[in-house]
TrEMBL record:
InterPro entries: Kinase-like_dom_sf (IPR011009), Meiotic_Drive_Suppr_Kinase (IPR052396). It comes from Neobacillus ginsengisoli. SUPFAM superfamilies: Protein kinase-like (PK-like). This is Serine/threonine protein kinase. Gene3D superfamilies: Transferase(Phosphotransferase) domain 1.
C-alpha cells in the first residue's frame, strides 16, 4: 500500500471513529474504537496504537493526551534515524505518527505468561539506549511495558520521553531485579506470574520511587 493511500485511510476510517480519554495521568489512555477496519493493538499513557489489515507492517500512534508532546516525539525519531533497537517514523499528522510495527511481547507480558527473557534481550536494550545517548538523546521512562522481545532480540517501542532531562532509574532498577531475582530464580523454570501480582508490583514500585524522591 502506498503511503498516501494509508494516510487517507487514517483520516477517513480511523480518526473519526475513535475516542481517547484519560482518567489518571499515571494510567493508560482509555480508548473507544468504533472503526470497522482499524484494530487497536495497544495503549499507553499518551496514546493508542492501531493497525490496518491492508498493511500490518505499519502502525498508527494516535495521541489522546498532551498533543504538544507529539512534536517532541517526532524530533526524537528524527535524531534516532534508522537503528535496529527502534521503530522507524514514516509520516505524521496533527495528532498521530505512522511507525514501523515492532513485533513481539513486552517484558511485562513475558513475566505474566511465563515466557523466559534471555540475557540477549537485556543486552540489545542496553545497546539501543547507548546509541540514543550517542545522538544526543536522554533515554527516559524505559521499563517493562515499553520494551518488547521477539526471537531473543530486544526492542524499545516508546521513545516519547527521550527528550527529557535528568536521570531516570527505571531501566537500571529493572536490570537489578533481572540480575538479582529473575535470572537466578525464574529464568530456567519460569512460572507464569498472575497479572494482579505484577500490577501490584508495578504500582508498589511507583509509590516506592515517589516516596524515596520525596525524602531526598
Amino acid at each position: 500500500m502506498q503511503l498516501d493511500t494509508y494516510l487517507r485511510l487514517i483520516d477517513k476510517e480511523l480518526l473519526p471513529y475513535i475516542q481517547l480519554t484519560s482518567e489518571s495521568p499515571f494510567d493508560p489512555i482509555i480508548v473507544k474504537n468504533q472503526s470497522k477496519s482499524w484494530k487497536m493493538i495497544g495503549n499507553g499513557n499518551y496514546a493508542g496504537v492501531f493497525t490496518h489489515h491492508a498493511n500490518p507492517e505499519w502502525v498508527v500512534k494516535v495521541y489522546g493526551r498532551n498533543p504538544k508532546e507529539l512534536q517532541k516525539e517526532i524530533e526524537v525519531y528524527k535524531k534516532l534515524g534508522s537503528h535496529d533497537s527502534y521503530s522507524t517514523l514514516y509520516a505524521y499528522g496533527e495528532d498521530y505518527l505512522v511507525l514501523k510495527k515492532l513485533e513481539g511481547i513486552t517484558l511485562f507480558e513475558a513475566v505474566v505468561n511465563g515466557v523466559p527473557i534471555p540475557d540477549s534481550v537485556i543486552i540489545d536494550i542496553d545497546k539501543g539506549l547507548q546509541y540514543a545517548k550517542s545522538v544526543g538523546l536522554n533515554p527516559y521512562d524505559v521499563h517493562g511495558k515499553n520494551v518488547v522481545m521477539n526471537n531473543g532480540r530486544g526492542f524499545i517501542v516508546d521513545v516519547s520521553d527521550f527528550y527529557k532531562q535528568g536521570y531516570c532509574c527505571k531501566w537500571d532498577d529493572l536490570k537489578k531485579a533481572y540480575n538479582r531475582i529473575y535470572r537466578p530464580f525464574l529464568l530456567k523454570y519460569h512460572p507464569p506470574i498472575p497479572f494482579f501480582i505484577m500490577n501490584w508490583i508495578r504500582k508498589g514500585y511507583r509509590l516506592y520511587r515517589k516516596k524515596k524522591k520525596g525524602n531526598i
